[in-house]
């Protein structure tokens, strides 16, 4: 049996993402071959495989062979996490079971996990079981960030402004008004003029710039207004990237071949391999590899 897992050239960006996977309280009181995979996140690879071979001694050659070969490669992957939470759990499980079982639990990204078993049983003279595993991880980039937590608060603002002004209006320069005998201009003949200068009776040249007319100005200015809206308030940071994988209260009272992988984070590679060869101990010329 040949197994290969390749994980490369991927890009994942998580912003406030929550991934949860659970199989709590499961896989109890069973027997035989059991494979379980629990993953939370992105681009995780998990597998369970069993290779069995048997040969009867009545066969001419009586030869049984079983082998496993595992290859895991992870390269050139890019992962950006912003306040992301990944949780994978298999709590209170795998109790009171027997046989061969493999369990993988992963929380995060680009995790590779594998459980392989090769078993060869022969009543003949020859038995062979082999296992190999290759894991390659390079050129991967993971960035974990916390995002700013921003809340908006309603605000109201009011203002009132008041004031006043005081001044004068003063005629600038002397003026002499013509008088005519006609009722409308330019009817009749010119009869004289009226002096409007600083020498006129009752003249008020307050700015000493000529003229006879002057007025006092007194006034009040008032402004009022109200504004309402929302302003952003930075209240802190969201929770940083959290990856949790748990297998609490599990694997109790079991027997047989047990393979368990628990990973939290990114780019983890895990494998469990078992090779068993059993031949006939009473057979002449018996060989086990």
TrEMBL record:
Protein name (Swiss-Prot/TrEMBL): Heme utilization protein
Species classification: Bacteria, Pseudomonadati, Pseudomonadota, Gammaproteobacteria, Pseudomonadales
Compositional bias ranges of the Polar residues kind: 1-17
Annotated region (Disordered), positions in chain: 1-24
Protein species of origin: Pseudomonas nitroreducens
